[in-house]
C-alpha cells in the first residue's frame, strides 16, 4: 500500500442534532434513514492524486449537472458497521477488507484507488467525531452503518474516466435490515433478468449493479416475494447471489455450501468470515457451483436442510421460500444459520473473543 501524507482538516457542524433527537432516532433507527452530524470528504484530481481531505458537516453536496457520475454511473461504494461493546468502546469489523474491496472496485470502474490508511483514517475520524451516534450495546442489533463511496465528479459529457473524483464517507445508525426481526425471507427466481455476466461488473460494488437489479426486485415484489436470487447469465442455471447478499446452503450432513466467486459475484466479507467460522463450529465448508436444480431437488429430498443469505446489512437471514414462474417451494429453517449468526454477532459485539484479529477499535 502506498503511504500518503494526507492530512484531514475538521469543520464541526454548528447545529448538530440534540441528544433528544438522537435518542428518538436510536429508539427506531430503521435502515439508512437517518445520518450523523458529519461526513468525510476527499478529492482526487488526475495528475495530482488525493487532496483536500476533511471532516465537514453532513449535508447536501454541490454537483454540476454534467458530472460524469450522473450520466455514466462511474461510482463505487462500500458498507461496514461500527459496533458498541458492553464497556462502551466502539469497534469496526474487518475494515481492511472493505478498503481492499473498494480498491478492487475502483480498478474495475477506472476510478483511483484510495490507500488503505486513508480509508481507515476516514472511518476513525468520522466515528470518533460522531461516536454518540453509535447505538448502545443494550439496543441489541443496532450499529452505526458506514457508507464510504466514490464518484466521478468531472463535468464532461465525453465517455472516458473522470479526471476529478470525490470520496465521501457518511454514517447512519441502523437496526435490522429486514423489519420484523429475524424471519425467513421469500425469494424470487427471475426468468427475465440476470445481475452480472463474466467480464462485467458483478464482482465490483458499483451502483450500476444495484440499479440493474431494481426491475428484478419489483418483479419479485409483484410475485409476493421479498428478494431476488440471481442465476448466471450464460446458462441461467447456476445460483449466484441476492441483490445485496451472498447465499449459503446447509446440507443434512452438516456441510455449508456457497457458490464459488468466479467474477460475477460480490465477494462478501460476511461470506468469507463464515467460511472461517464454520470450521470452528464443526461444520464442513465447500465453495463450488450449485445449480438451481440441485437447490430444488435438495430441498424436496431433505438433502438441503437450510438456506440463508448473508451480508453486512442483513447479517445472516434464513430464506423461507423459493418461487419462480409456475412454481414454488417452501424451504425448511433450522438451527445452523442461527448458530452461525450468533457466533458472528458475539464477535462483532465483543461478547466472544476475537481470535482472528477482525475487530479494530475506533
Ligand atoms: N452481495 C452483494 C450484491 C452485496 O451488495 C453485499 C453487501 O455488501 C453482499 C453480497 C455481502 O457483502 P458483505 O458481507 O461484504 O457485506
Ligand atoms: C451491505 O450489506 O452493506 C450492502 O451494501 C447491501 C445493501 C443491500 C444495503
TrEMBL record:
Metabolic or biological pathway, per its Swiss-Prot or TrEMBL entry: Amino-acid biosynthesis; L-valine biosynthesis; L-valine from pyruvate: step 4/4; Amino-acid biosynthesis; L-isoleucine biosynthesis; L-isoleucine from 2-oxobutanoate: step 4/4; Amino-acid biosynthesis; L-leucine biosynthesis; L-leucine from 3-methyl-2-oxobutanoate: step 4/4
Catalytic reactions of this protein: L-isoleucine + 2-oxoglutarate = (S)-3-methyl-2-oxopentanoate + L-glutamate; L-leucine + 2-oxoglutarate = 4-methyl-2-oxopentanoate + L-glutamate; L-valine + 2-oxoglutarate = 3-methyl-2-oxobutanoate + L-glutamate
Parts of the chain that traverse the membrane: none
InterPro entries: Aminotrans_IV (IPR001544), Aminotrans_IV_CS (IPR018300), Aminotransferase-like (IPR036038), B_amino_transII (IPR005786), BCAT-like_C (IPR043132), BCAT-like_N (IPR043131), BCAT_family (IPR033939)
The EC number(s) this enzyme carries: 2.6.1.42
Record keywords, A-Z: Amino-acid biosynthesis, Aminotransferase, Branched-chain amino acid biosynthesis, Pyridoxal phosphate, Transferase
Keyword set includes Aminoacyl-tRNA synthetase: no
Enzyme type, top EC level: transferase
Cofactor: pyridoxal 5'-phosphate
Region Disordered, annotated ranges: 1-20
Molecular-function GO term, any one: transaminase activity
The UniProt record lists the keyword Transferase: yes
Compositional bias per record (Polar residues), positions renumbered to this chain: 1-15
Family of this protein: Belongs to the class-IV pyridoxal-phosphate-dependent aminotransferase family.
Protein name (Swiss-Prot/TrEMBL): Branched-chain-amino-acid aminotransferase
Organism: Kineosporia mesophila
